[in-house]
Design goal:
11% strand, Heat Shock Protein 90, Hypothetical protein af1432, 25 helices, alpha+beta, 702 residues, six-stranded antiparallel beta sheet, five-stranded mixed beta sheet
């Protein structure tokens, strides 16, 4: 998520950009809807889009993506779907609680919000009337067009007087440029761009009050925004000149515009009534009055109950350990008006603070600060258990290089350090905070403490759980290794004895066929021994050896060894179709034997007495663009249902309904085939048998 500080602005004072007050009625309606618990994300979004400040905060926290359409309602709905209800309730309550720096009175604030909503709807309706292809862009332009005016009214000490001394907006902009280096429209455009709104919208916002004579060649969106502003002015001054100017900008007849103006006025009034506001049409004109002399100051909430509720909502939003970091980042922006912090942790038994792993700052884990460091404000916050501030000096690095470097990493000339302590760990959350920025008074400090403690408790719990799980996994792995080695040791002794007796028997008999079978059996014992040793060494499932197998020879060997035991004794015919001239396959002999033997055993379990198994191998197949050899195993057993075929290679799947038909080897079969670059397919139909096809790449020719 991008940094939300607005460094490019030539601000008269450095202030948190997320401290603009929304309309109290909007925040109350939002809190009421959230408290009911039955409102959908889109229902909540419809309340938020009535207030440009709430829209601004949410999009500044999670800006529009490059390919995301500028549909404000849809964008807000998507973001709400990923935010905890407790955090949204805390956000609404945070706006209801009285702001220490609040300078815009309630009446003037209502004028401002209604004016922005009015211009937004006018611009959208004008876009529809003129055939502009993206009316949502026009709406977003109108909603954000005067955000800079509210920003300056709230934070520039001399701005209220400047407004009182100016009676015309274009004269106001000249004074703003002289005094602040930009006007409120340019500031609005900059704020909109920070929310990810397209450059075309930012341009339309910046030019909405320009001389209409200069806008004849401008983009249509610019003319729509300027016309909507002229119509809003007409609603307040009833000047025919404003109506004529709007008509010239968008080339619409005056009668159409008047009708559209009346419809839009009624629409905005209806939306205002949902907030409990009776909107007079004159309230939708440009709001010049910003005095704090208001009629509802007594209704502002600033008491212990509201603050306790704010803390409760904040904590409830941070109860899910897996998402604690993500929620902490979001809460920092929405509730604190600050970018996400980094953490320094003092683990138990450690005497210093170490940076916690952070993807955005990979070198953080290499910064270590002694807890008794007299020069570090991070260490000071930890020792004294109070918030501390760091400000970069004119000549770096100052008294503590770690503090200075961390501020650079966080793209700030200052830091705000909040200590925390829980059952698992303790440490300091370090927020980027420009040195001239006012971090707020008691409400903000208590809220930072609450959020930091709630989030770090969850983060530490998750870390502790991960450590415990890792230790448990290591313990289980050690026990399993010991167990496997004991089994391997115990199994090797009888295998050695069997091999010895096979050698003795081989010396005493003269039947060539029997000697060959004894040799094959001895080879199989060697393969079993290799598998046991490999399992005890945990070096992988694929048997060792050259990736070069004579498929025809292996199939004949397996039929000689297992044809009688698996098939003939059960009355099953085993037919083998292969050629001694087949090219070798790129798989080790041990792995290929394991694959085929598992499939043969499953077939023997599935085929009824009197059935037949046909095994064939052919070359000259092209699979996935490579020459392959195909091994096909066909039985005329009962077959499998389609859903069984879909999950056949999953762990625990059964290849038949017969007792003992577990199909245990099928996941191993697929793993061995794919590990050697091959593909295995299964086709089956109830009552028609089953077919397995194995496509193995050919071995490279020497």
């Amino acid at each position: 998520m991008p940094n939300t500080r607005i460094f490019k602005l030539r601000r008269p004072v450095a202030v948190p950009t997320l401290r603009l007050p929304c309309l109290r009625e909007t925040a109350t309606a939002l809190l009421r809807a959230l408290s009911v618990g039955s409102a959908s994300a889109q229902d909540i979004a419809r309340i938020i889009v009535l207030d440009p400040v709430l829209v601004f905060e949410l999009l500044l926290t999670d800006p529009l993506g490059d390919t995301e359409a500028a549909c404000i309602l849809d964008a807000i709905t998507r973001r709400l779907e990923g935010i905890d209800s407790g955090l949204l309730q805390a956000w609404a309550l945070r706006h209801i609680i009285q702001q220490p720096r609040l300078r815009v009175g309630g009446r003037s604030h209502r004028h401002y919000i209604l004016h922005s909503q009015f211009v937004a709807e006018l611009a959208e309706h004008l876009a529809h009337e003129t055939g502009y292809p993206d009316p949502e862009q026009a709406y977003a332009t109108g909603l954000f067009h005067d955000l800079g005016l509210l920003w300056l009214a709230e934070y520039a000490d001399d701005y209220p007087q400047l407004l009182a001394d100016t009676t015309e907006e274009r004269n106001l902009t000249h004074t703003e440029w002289d005094r602040y280096g930009q006007d409120h429209a340019d500031l609005s455009a900059d704020l909109a761009a920070r929310c990810g709104l397209p450059a075309g919208i930012a341009d339309a916002i910046a030019l909405h009050h320009a001389d209409p004579q200069a806008l004849g060649t401008a983009h249509p969106l610019v003319r729509l925004a300027a016309a909507a502003e002229e119509l809003a002015s007409y609603r307040g001054n009833q000047s025919a000149a404003s109506l004529e100017t709007a008509s010239q900008l968008i080339q619409l007849e005056g009668s159409i515009i008047v009708s559209l103006l009346a419809d839009t006025t009624r629409s905005v009034q209806a939306k205002a009534r949902t907030l409990g506001i009776q909107a007079d049409p004159t309230m939708m004109a440009l709001p010049w009055n910003t005095s704090t002399d208001d009629d509802d100051t007594s209704e502002l909430i600033d008491n212990g109950i509201a603050r306790a509720a704010l803390s409760a909502f904040s904590r409830s939003a941070l109860i899910d350990a897996p998402t604690a970091w993500q929620d902490f980042n979001l809460a920092s922006r929405l509730l604190l008006g600050m970018d996400a912090p980094v953490l320094f942790v003092k683990a138990l038994g450690n005497d210093g603070l170490t940076g916690a792993a952070n993807p955005a700052h990979p070198g953080l884990t290499q910064i270590h600060i002694a807890a008794d460091d007299a020069h570090s404000v991070i260490a000071e916050a930890y020792r004294d258990k109070v918030e501390t501030r760091f400000q970069s000096g004119q000549r770096p690095p100052g008294r503590c290089a770690a503090d200075w470097q961390l501020a650079r990493w966080l793209d700030s000339d200052g830091l705000l350090c909040v200590p925390w302590n829980n059952h698992h760990e303790s440490g300091v959350a370090v927020f980027p905070c420009p040195s001239a920025e006012d971090p707020g008074l008691e409400v903000e400090q208590d809220l930072r403490k609450t959020l930091t403690l709630a989030a770090t408790s969850r983060i530490s719990e998750r870390s502790a759980d991960q450590r415990t799980r890792h230790e448990l996994e290591e313990s289980i792995a050690r026990r399993y290794v010991d167990h496997a080695r004991r089994i391997a040791h115990e199994a090797s002794n009888p295998l050695t004895v069997i091999k010895t007796y096979l050698g003795i028997i081989d010396e005493k008999i003269h039947d060539a066929t029997l000697k060959e079978q004894l040799n094959l059996l001895s080879d199989e014992l060697d393969r079993v021994g290799t598998l046991i040793r490999k399992a005890s060494d945990f070096s992988g499932i694929t048997p060792t050896g050259p990736a070069h197998s004579g498929v025809s020879e292996i199939l004949h060997d397996l039929r000689a060894l297992y044809g009688e035991a698996l098939f003939a004794r059960r009355g099953i015919q085993f037919e083998l179709r292969t050629s001694p001239s087949l090219p070798p396959a790129a798989i080790t002999p041990g792995a290929l034997k394991q694959i085929l033997l598992n499939l043969f055993k499953n077939a023997a379990e599935a085929i009824p007495e009197g059935g037949k198994l046909t095994v064939s191998a052919v070359a000259g197949i092209n699979a996935n663009g490579s020459p392959c050899l195909e091994i096909r195993i066909v039985d005329n057993g009962p077959g499998l249902a389609p859903e069984r075929v879909q999950s056949l290679f999953a762990s625990g799947a059964k290849s038949s309904d017969k007792p003992g038909g577990s199909g245990v080897g099928l996941p191993v079969v697929r793993e061995l085939v794919t590990a050697n670059g091959g593909t295995i397919l299964c086709r089956s139909q109830l009552g028609s048998g089953t077919v397995f096809q194995i496509f193995m790449p050919l071995a490279a020719t020497p």
